[in-house]
Amino acid sequence: MKTQKLNREEIFAPGRLVHVDESRNLAIRNLSAEDLHKGDVFFSQARPMMLDRWLSDMEQEKSVFLVARMGSRYAGSCALDADPYKKYEAAFICFLYVLPKKRGSGVGGTLVDSAIRVVRDLSISAVELLVHSDEGMDSVAKRLYLRKGFEEKAPENGFGELMIRRV
Ligand SMILES: CC(C)(COP(=O)(O)OP(=O)(O)OC[C@H]1O[C@@H](n2cnc3c(N)ncnc32)[C@H](O)[C@@H]1OP(=O)(O)O)[C@@H](O)C(=O)NCCC(=O)NCCS
User: Fold this and answer.
1) pLDDT tens digits for 77-87?
2) CA gap 167, 123 in Å, rounded
3) CA torsion sign, 82 to 62 to 78 to 87?
4) How far, in Å, from the CA of 109 to the mean position of ligand 1?
C-alpha cells in the first residue's frame, strides 16, 4: 500500500497515529505526554527519566519514539535516533522491545516497518542498528532485521553487530 509522505512537523508530532492494523487491534503512535502519565511503557518502568528525554528529543526533531498498543494495552516500542546534526548519514534504531506475551505476532516487525517509513519520509538514505551479541547471531531479532532488508555492515565488536538497511 502506498502511503502519503509526511512532513517534518507531522513526523515528530507527539501522539501521532503512525500505523493501524484493525485485524490485530494494533495501533502504533508517537510517544506522547499522556504515555508518560500512563506509566505502562516498558522504558518508564525501567528508567523513568528516559521517556522524558525521548519526548524532549522528539520536540527538538531529533528522535521518534514509537509506542505499539493492542487495544489500550502497551505491547512494545521502538526508538529511532534521527538527529540531522550527527555526522553519519543514517538514522539509528536504538531500542526495539516487545512485551514477552505479545511476541511472535508481528508487533516487532510492524514497529520496524514504521521506523523505516519515518526514515524514508525524512529523506534519510539509510537506517542502522546494533544487534547485541548476547542474543546470538541467529536470534529472533536478527532474523527479523534480515527479513526487513537489513544487511550486516560491520562484524561483532563487543557492543554488537552493526546492520544497515538502505531506504
Ligand atoms: C526481537 C523482538 C522485538 C521481536 O518482536 P516480535 O513482536 O516477536 O517480532 P515479530 O512477531 O514481528 O517476529 C518474530 C517472529 O514471529 C513470527 N511472526 C510474525 N508475525 C506472526 C504472526 N502473525 N503469527 C505468527 N508468527 C508471526 C515471525 O515470523 C518471527 O519468526 P522467527 O522468529 O522465526 O523469525 C522481541 O523478541 C523482543 O522484544 N526481544 C527482546 C528485546 C530485543 O532483543 N530487542 C532487539 C535488540 S537488537
Assistant:
1) 999 999 866 66
2) 8
3) positive
4) 7
Q: DSSP label at 65? A: E
Task: Give the chain's count of helices (H) and strands (E).
Answer: 6, 8
Rounded to 5°, the CA angle 130-135-140 comes to: 85
Task: Tell me the CA–centroid distance for residue 140 and ligand 1, in Å.
Answer: 6
Residue of 95, 103, 130 with the most ligand 1 atoms within 8 Å of its CB, for mutation? 103
Task: Give the Cα separation of 77 and 97 in Å (integer).
Answer: 5
Domain annotation for the chain: domains and CATH numbers? 8-166 (3.40.630.30)
Whether this prediction's pTM lies above 0.85 is answered by: yes
